Amino acid sequence: MRRITVLVLALALVLAAAGPVAARSQRAGGDTTVTLMTHDSFNVSKKVLKDFERRSGIHIDILRSGDAGAALNQAILTKGDPLGDVFFGVDNTLLSRAVDEGVFEPYDAPALSKVGRDVQLDPTHHVTPVDTGDVCINYDKRYFAKEKVPTPASLDDLTKPDYDDLLVVENVATSSPGLAFLLATVAEFGEDGWQDYWQRLRDNGVTVVDGWEQAYNEEFSGAAAGEGDHPLVVSYASSPPAEVIYADPRPKRAPTASLLSSCFRQIEFAGILDGTEHRRAAEQVVDFLLSRPFQEDMPLQMFVYPVLEGAQLPPAFVKYAQVAPDPLSLPPAEIAANRDRWIDQWTDIVLR
Q1: How far apart are CA 319 and CA 335, in angstroms?
Q2: How far is Cα 341 from Cα 334, in angstroms, rounded to an integer?
Q3: Which class for 251: exposed (0-12), middle (13-18), buried (19 or more C-beta within 10 A)?
Q4: Are 41 and 212 in contact (CB under 8 A)?
Q5: Domain 133-266+319-350 is classified in which CATH homologous superfamily?
Q6: Reduced to 3 states, what is the DSSP secondary structure of residue 28?
Q7: Where are the chain's structural domains?
Q8: DSSP per position, 298-349
Q9: pLDDT string in tens for the chain (352-residue length)
Q10: Among residues 123, 141, 340, which one has the least CA distance to residue 244?
């Protein structure tokens, strides 16, 4: 009897010591919990998520951590002892920083064989491409019709008096779309011209906020979710269809549009965070992000394009989405070599 009591007591002590780990790694029933660290705009339909959890026995705990740039900063600060197991949302503007900082463990996802080589930017497979989208200037059609002001036709137009105090952008140091827009201006005006362009934007009253959610949903006048007073915002070419699809009642035409000559092609990646305690389950979550159900769910959840060959786009997305015919871009090596310097120079010009 005493022997049984001692064994029970010993077992209780072991379980108590392992309590935090057990709580993090398992849920009721013994299923593994994988924490997916991501940006605030991440979304997935309940059915797609629950189907994966039921089939795999893995519960996904979604940890939204601000804009993608801010979320990556947190991942870098906690590398080796991560806040999650998988990270989704690092893009081609920050890719080299994430890989160089050692945030991710390599993983060669089987589904990469069905993904175009043009979006597989990391030959070491520390990150896996999941989606693409174009960061562009969006404008509020109603504002320009009411004020009888022509909509801008180029990036250069945004520095003209007609657009004084009308544009809101995201901080390039904390926001991935903000950084993408900076890179668009570098691609458009070159190393010798982009700084002058941003000085002209500042002189023309550009407003800077921390991230996309604030810029679009609080500051932009064209967003159904907000009551902002800026009719121009840095957002996505896929934002106008969102304003149609989620409106009630649904309008026949989108109330917003994108300046397609301003667009910068963005590729988002997922990676397994270095130090995860659930490596095999984390691999399954990355595989899930590349699976057909998730890839076909994304367009109407996050308004981005799938990378998986053969993934079908929803008809409503095809009907209202705008595609930049010739998006601006920069080679990843050029971004890696100059990104930090460009951010510092932008900060000196715009914020100081």
Answers
A1: 33
A2: 12
A3: exposed
A4: yes
A5: Periplasmic binding protein-like II (3.40.190.10)
A6: coil
A7: 10-132+267-306, 133-266+319-350
A8: HHHHT--EE-BTTPPPPHHHHHH----SS-B---HHHHHHHHHHHHHHHHHH
A9: 333 333 333 333 333 344 433 334 444 334 899 999 999 989 999 999 999 999 999 999 999 998 888 899 999 999 999 999 999 999 998 899 999 999 999 999 999 999 999 999 999 999 999 999 999 999 999 999 999 999 999 999 999 999 999 999 999 998 889 999 999 999 999 999 999 999 999 999 999 999 998 999 999 999 987 789 999 999 999 999 989 988 888 888 899 999 999 999 999 999 999 999 999 999 999 999 999 999 999 999 998 999 999 999 998 888 888 889 999 999 888 999 999 999 999 999 999 8
A10: 141
CB-side neighbour CA atoms (13 Å) of 91: 26
* Superfamily of domain covering 10-132+267-306: Periplasmic binding protein-like II (3.40.190.10)
As to burial, measured by CB atoms within 10 angstroms (0-12 exposed, 13-18 middle, 19+ buried), residue 100 is: exposed
10 Å Cβ neighbour count for 80? 9
pTM over 0.85: no
Tokens representing residue 81 in the block: 């002892």
Residue 325 preceded by cis peptide, ω within 30? no
**Non-local CB neighbours of 94 within 8 Å, separated by 6+ positions:** 68, 69, 72, 176, 179, 339
Nearest-angstrom CA–CA distance, 255 and 222: 7
Q: Where are the alpha helices (DSSP H) in 18-140?
A: 19-25, 46-56, 68-77, 95-100
DSSP string, 248-317: SSPPSS-SEEEEEEEEEEEEEEEEEETT-S-HHHHHHHHHHHTSHHHHHHHHHHT--EE-BTTPPPPHHH
Length of the chain in terms of residues written = 352
Q: Is 137 helix (H, G, I), strand (E, B) or coil?
A: strand
**Beta bridge mates, 305:** 132
With CA atoms as reference, report the closest residue to 104 among 286, 268, 270, 273.
273
**Could you identify the residue written with the tokens 């009551």?**
227
